[in-house]
Design goal:
Order of helices and strands: EEHHHEEH
Number of domains: 2
Radius of gyration: 21 Å
Structural class: alpha+beta
Helix content: 40-55%
CATH superfamily of the largest domain: NinB
Strand order of the largest sheet: 1-2
CATH class of the largest domain: Mainly Alpha
CATH architecture of the largest domain: Orthogonal Bundle
Number of strands: 4
Shape: flat
Length: 134
Amino acid sequence: MKAKVVRGVIVPSKDITALNGTSVEVSIDKLINEPRSINQNSYYFGIVVPAISAHIEETEGIIYTKDEIHAFNQIKIAGAKPTIISIGDQEVIHFKVKSTTVMTKKEFTTFVEIIRKYWAERGLDIPDPSIMNG
């Protein structure tokens, strides 16, 4: 029998609900769409973003903040698209992109792998995420 976890709550499948009150033991093998981890976030903002910033400063002499590097990655790597929206009488530029805070572990891993490849092609070797585990 199967169940899924939705926002931290076990939701039984129809097979389980059809048992009408019979006790069942449920085990969870893995979480699907598990949110990105604190370690992934620490690696990204503690290793990846500073490495990119240092590389640009070294090669171009320009200093960017971590927020600027992150915005670049969201636009260039994650494909954020600018749109102009009106709020009241003001127009603002809004970038439609999935925030890294709501990415799954798999999505975030892919995001970081693409960033590492992009920067490797520009002469920057960003350390592998495994450095966070050991």
